[in-house]
C-alpha cells in the first residue's frame, strides 16, 4: 500500500455507514428563514405565508417568557486552533524529552546509592570478621592474610594488626556512610524533580486534550491539507502515529482515496484512515496483530473526544453510535485485506 496516495484506487473495502441526520440550530433557522423569503412567498401564495406566519407566531407565544438568550458565540477559527495544537504538541514533546533526562538522573542517583550501600555493607562485614578474630584468638581470617603475609617478621603482635585493620575499615565505613547520605539526598532530590515534571506534563496534557476536543467538535471540517483529509481526521492520524509510530516498515498509513470500496465510504470524504500492520497482503505476525489491537482499542477509548465514528479490525466492527455494544462480527469479504486483517480502519464523523 502507498501511504496517503490521493490518486490511487485500491482494493480496500470500507464498512459503509450513513451520516447522522441531526440538523444544527443554524440549519433550522435557515430553513425557517427560507420559508419567509420573497421568492417562496410568491410561489406559495399569500394564504400559505399567512399560515406559516401564524404558526410561527403561535409557537413564539407558547414559549415561556424568559429573558432573550444571546446566540452562541462563533467558535475559534480552525487555523487558530491548529496553531495552538501545534504549539502545545511541540511543548509537550519537549517536556517529554526533558522528563526522560530527569528519569535518567533519578535512575543514576538510585544506582549510586545502591552501590555505595553495598560497599559500606562489605566494609562492615570485614570489621565484624576482624573483631571476631581478635576476640576468639583464632587468628586472622584468611581474607585478611594479604595484609601480613608479605613481611611476617614485621608483625609484632597479631592484635595490633587486627586493631589497625579494623580502624582502617571503620574510617572507610565512615566515609562510605557520608557518601551514602549524599547519594540518598541526591536520590530524594531527583525524585522530587521527577514528580514536579510529571505534574507539569499532566497539566500540559490536559490543555492539549482540550484543544484537541475543540478541533474535533469544530463545525468547519473541509477536506484539504497535505493528505486531502478533514482537520478532525488529520488530528486523529497524527495522534495515532505519535502513540504507535507510522509503521512504514509494514505499509504505513493511508487516508484519502477517490473510491471508498464496495460502497461509498469515508475515504473519498477525507474522513477515514487505514493503519497497516502488514504491507504484503498476508496474515500479520502476532506482534503485528497486537499492535493493531492496541491502535483499535486506543481509538475506542478516545472516540468521543476525537470524533471517531467507527473502527474496523480483523473482520470486526465497533461503532460509537451503538452505545455500549462491543465488537461485532462482519461478513466474509473474501480476502485478508477486505476483511481488515492487515490494517485497522478508523472512520470519523
From TrEMBL:
> Which stretches are annotated as coiled coil?
78-130, 166-221
Record field: transmembrane: 49-71
Q: Which ranges carry the ARB-07466-like C-terminal domain?
A: 228-341
Q: Which UniProt keywords apply?
A: Coiled coil, Membrane, Transmembrane, Transmembrane helix
> Mind telling me which Pfam families this protein's record contains?
VldE (PF26571)
Q: What is this protein called?
A: ARB-07466-like C-terminal domain-containing protein
Organism of this sequence? Nocardiopsis changdeensis
